[in-house]
């Protein structure tokens, strides 16, 4: 048995999404504010509502007006002395829901007997809807009307007071501004939501399961007369533990809460976690067995010795008190005694220390210095804390040690769901990779677990770290993408993309992309846009062009990848699946003809391009003449259903150049980035000192003979030139900040900036987008 996927609706910015869960580890990735945290919070809210209660802000913002309208209709009916029809129907389209879909084998049906939809169901997919809904509409109506009436009386009193203070005014002045709770039903529920709402479960029909449409889930419609099957139907089926993002390292906890509550809290020091672990699994006073006799006898002996010493110490003090006439003959006499607990030995700030090796006089390493826990680095604290907490989660689920006597041990939940937010906090790159590789193994390190399919652990991790993402298979990644208001709803919402579907059956492409991204440590999954460049010179110089000339673009989160013209198209399935705004900066790679040899570009010579990106992606032709004549539209590809996604290619274009000493301009046809940069800044390179390509470019310009001759010499120099060395020489030059950006790159960067400005707005204009008509059962947007 395992969780196949969840469908979350009407929860914060998750209007209607499906999140597939891998059988072992699932990774949530995406840019900031894309919905990852909302998804993790929804899992906590629905699966552990007692220790993670709902808030009014959990209702999707575009549904607040519906809640307000319900309250207004109640107030209007009261004012007109009409009978209010308190039914659930007006609420159905706005209530937060989580549809949990399990895969259940035929031999596991006894675990889900309360969820089985029909008598003829024999295993496979099984769904249950968890819906956050009103407990008692009559009570909610009564209390809201009472609070609303009290508020109205206060407002009337304020108006009367203003009239008394100004009896001669006509008309009477308005009272000073006064906000009185509740202003509306949303305001009322913001303070008392948990009093009137609860999570109820409803069975779902696997036969009515519908696939998402354009990444928007389509949960099945339940009749208004559907009856809930209970509140705790998942108790005994799923054990949920989580490690939140804010772990508060270096801060002592004022009290030790129960294990499940502690796991959901902001975090605690390792010493606090050890105390909790000891209390649940090791404390000899809880359900002692023969192995605990020695510890118990030692504690009692210490207690007796301490009591004897205390009695001797306080004897003089008690004798002095007796001199005051108390206690008398019949009065009880005071005595001092102790009650020692083994856990008290961990109840201090130095319960955990770290030993530091010191070289002694004999030259040997001696661990004699100890530092308190708070003096250790945050990275180590984080790593040790998370690993220890995972061990604690595992042992609590498996009822290890004393937990078997304090928790019902006759039934272990078949599913263990562990949620971890942003494990990369304070960890350097290598440790991040080690943690994500080892975390699942820690959760399965028990003699009854291992490969046991009857007890399943599913780990869900949200992250902003490319190092964590690259250590996880594409099939386990779930990409969260933020959509602005007007695209799928009236408010900004999110959608989720299952990365296992990106490459389809093309395993070779998936292997290349996976290996490439791991080698590059790219941030594609967290960026606002991507720039793919041809070679090392562009990789070094383009970011500097952006910093020097495009301040607004420099403030955006853009990832730059050196991929090469022959491979950029291999990222096409990934980029299009992510809907990631992308600029591809590449070279013409001209040939004398089909299958010919490399040649300097020229128009009207029947040349072909050898660049796979230009041939198969954009503009989609191998004719050099067509590439030279291509306009902006031909170099750009957009999505009909996604106005925020576009890809543009930028490659060399003909230039009008006037070399030093020439009588007038002539047309140059650059072959690659380096000679395009030189032609755009020909006087700069004519005076630039350097070696390698820089020297050969200077000599080509000094040789003169016209633009074509200079171009030929540069082309020959580029065949064996070291481009990375060229880029470094240019970066070190005094006049670098005054360089003219090659116009094909400048046009591409200006296009990218314009697209990012449109992407970052909260609301799309009606001119840019007509709202799509996506069917969404049980919701009104």
TrEMBL record:
Coiled coil: none
Annotated spans, Disordered: 248-268
Classification via InterPro entries: AAA_GajA/Old/RecF-like, Bact_Antivir_Def_Nuclease, P-loop_NTPase, TOPRIM_OLD
Gene3D superfamilies reported in the protein's UniProt record: P-loop containing nucleotide triphosphate hydrolases (3.40.50.300)
Residue ranges of every copy of the OLD protein-like TOPRIM domain listed in the record: 525-589
Taxonomic superkingdom: Bacteria
Domain Endonuclease GajA/Old nuclease/RecF-like AAA per the UniProt entry, residue ranges: 1-53, 252-469
UniProt-recorded name of the protein: ATP-dependent endonuclease
Organism of provenance: Oceanococcus atlanticus
């Amino acid at each position: 048995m395992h969780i196949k996927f969840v469908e979350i609706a009407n929860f914060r910015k998750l209007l209607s999404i499906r999140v597939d869960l891998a059988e072992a580890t699932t990774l949530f990735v995406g840019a900031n504010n894309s919905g990852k945290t909302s998804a993790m919070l929804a899992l906590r809210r629905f699966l552990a509502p007692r220790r993670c209660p709902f808030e009014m802000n959990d209702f999707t913002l575009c549904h607040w007006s519906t809640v307000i309208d319900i309250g207004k209709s109640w107030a209007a009916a009261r004012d007109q002395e009409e009978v209010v029809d308190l039914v659930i129907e007006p609420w159905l389209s706005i209530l937060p829901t989580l549809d949990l879909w399990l895969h259940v084998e035929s031999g596991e049906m006894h675990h889900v007997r309360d969820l089985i939809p029909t008598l003829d169901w024999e295993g496979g997919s099984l769904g249950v809807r968890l819906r956050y809904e009103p407990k008692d509409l009559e009570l909610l109506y009564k209390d809201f009307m009472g609070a609303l009436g009290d508020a109205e009386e206060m407002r009337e009193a304020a108006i009367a007071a203003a009239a008394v203070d100004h009896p001669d005014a006509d008309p009477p002045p308005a009272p000073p501004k006064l906000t009185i709770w509740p202003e509306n039903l949303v305001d009322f529920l913001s303070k008392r939501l948990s009093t009137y709402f609860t999570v109820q479960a409803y069975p779902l029909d696997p036969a009515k399961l519908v696939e998402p449409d354009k990444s928007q889930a389509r949960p099945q419609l339940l009749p208004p007369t559907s009856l809930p099957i209970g509140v705790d139907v998942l108790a005994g089926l799923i054990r949920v533990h989580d490690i939140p993002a804010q772990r508060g390292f270096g801060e002592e906890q004022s009290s030790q809460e129960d294990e499940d509550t502690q796991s959901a809290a902001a975090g605690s020091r390792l010493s606090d976690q050890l105390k909790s672990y000891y209390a649940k699994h090791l404390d000899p006073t809880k359900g002692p067995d023969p192995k605990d006799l020695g510890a118990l006898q030692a504690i009692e002996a210490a207690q007796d010795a301490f009591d004897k010493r205390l009695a001797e110490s306080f004897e003089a003090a008690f004798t002095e008190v007796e001199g005051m006439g108390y206690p008398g003959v019949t009065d009880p006499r005071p005595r001092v005694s102790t009650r020692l607990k083994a856990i008290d030995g961990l109840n201090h700030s130095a319960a955990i220390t770290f030993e530091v090796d010191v070289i002694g006089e004999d030259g040997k390493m001696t661990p004699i210095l100890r530092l308190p826990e708070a003096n250790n680095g945050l990275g180590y604290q984080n790593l040790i804390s998370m690993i220890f907490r995972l061990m604690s989660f595992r042992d609590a689920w498996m009822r290890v040690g004393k937990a078997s006597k304090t928790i019902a041990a006759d039934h272990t939940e078949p599913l263990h769901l562990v949620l971890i937010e942003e494990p990369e906090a304070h960890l350097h790159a290598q440790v991040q990779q080690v943690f994500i590789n080892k975390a699942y193994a820690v959760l399965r390190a028990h003699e009854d677990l291992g490969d046991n399919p009857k007890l399943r652990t599913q780990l869900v991790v949200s992250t902003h770290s490319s190092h964590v993402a690259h250590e996880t298979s594409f099939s386990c990644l779930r990409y969260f993408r933020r959509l602005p208001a007007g695209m799928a709803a009236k408010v900004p919402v999110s959608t989720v993309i299952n990365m296992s579907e990106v490459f389809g059956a093309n395993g070779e492409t998936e292997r290349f992309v996976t290996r490439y991204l791991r080698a590059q440590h790219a941030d594609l999954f967290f960026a606002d846009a991507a720039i793919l460049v041809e070679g090392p010179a562009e990789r070094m110089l383009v970011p500097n062009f952006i910093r020097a000339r495009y301040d607004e673009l420099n403030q955006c989160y853009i990832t730059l990848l050196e991929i090469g013209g022959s491979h950029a198209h291999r990222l096409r399935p990934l980029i299009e699946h992510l809907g990631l705004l992308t600029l591809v900066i590449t070279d013409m790679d001209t040939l004398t003809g089909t299958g010919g040899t490399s040649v300097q570009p020229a128009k009207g010579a029947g040349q072909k391009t050898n660049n796979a990106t230009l041939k198969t992606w954009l503009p989609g032709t191998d004719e050099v003449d067509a590439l030279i004549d291509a306009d902006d539209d031909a170099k750009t590809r957009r999505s009909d259903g996604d106005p925020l996604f576009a890809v543009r290619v930028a490659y060399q274009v003909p230039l009008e150049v006037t070399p030093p000493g020439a009588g007038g301009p002539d047309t140059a046809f650059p072959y690659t980035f380096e000679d395009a940069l030189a032609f755009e800044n020909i006087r700069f390179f004519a005076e630039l000192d350097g070696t390698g390509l820089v020297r050969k470019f200077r000599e080509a310009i000094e040789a003169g003979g016209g633009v074509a001759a200079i171009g030929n010499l540069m082309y020959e120099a580029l065949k064996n030139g070291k481009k990375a060395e060229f880029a470094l020489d240019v970066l070190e030059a005094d006049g670098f900040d005054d360089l003219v950006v090659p116009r094909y790159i400048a046009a591409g960067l200006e296009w990218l900036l314009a697209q990012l400005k449109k992407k970052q707005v909260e609301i799309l204009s009606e001119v840019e987008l007509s709202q799509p008509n996506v069917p969404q059962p049980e919701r009104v947007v």
